[in-house]
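Lecture notes, unit on protein representations.

Consider one protein chain, 227 amino acids long.
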Amino acid sequence: MMLKAKKTTPKLPVFQTFKTKGKEFTGEAMRQQGIITHLITETLPTRRTRTAIAHRLAEKNNTTWQNIYSGIFRDLDEILLPLGIVEEGGRLPIKRGPKALQDQGVPYYQLTDSGLLVAASLSEINKERIKIMADFFERNSISKDKDLKKSILTLLDVAPNFVSSLLKKYVESYSEGKITHLIPFDMDSVKKAFDETLMVQKELLEGFSSLSNVDREPIISFLKRVG
């Protein structure tokens, strides 16, 4: 009797880059970033079906929606849904097509709490990013560590780019298997996500906070001049 092969848990390639092209994102990574960005910005269910997502991404990438649809179908069904980044939000009734599809309706999608965290880590979202991060960390289900949540929300006011860098590295660490979950957002996982860049930022923050007001002024002046 042949043993069934165990299904392996998919990895999230949302920040995956080409090995030979430096920091250039793969087509799969860009497509999944596009799906997540679309779901965080669109509110109407009719705009959150597979076909609607395909039309939006095709328009953005100057191609036809038919060319990109199969990739979006695969991204949702084989990666984003199994990982709990995206979930089905409901079904829309249709009047045409196969009877089974008419009876079941067409699914539309929404982001889970884990999906919101991934969305908050994407630079593509720009202006809405800080609001998304704030909304995310104000949810009670995100973390049981109240001090951690309070610290992150305070840092969002004074150093949003630091929080953004932290979340991106956190999601990358999840994608690489260094941490096993996105939610709950806990200190042990945050520690595992810290890399050299974040350590440099931490050193600067700790060093600056230890300075007197007199010593801080030339540092602030320097940073303003180079920034």
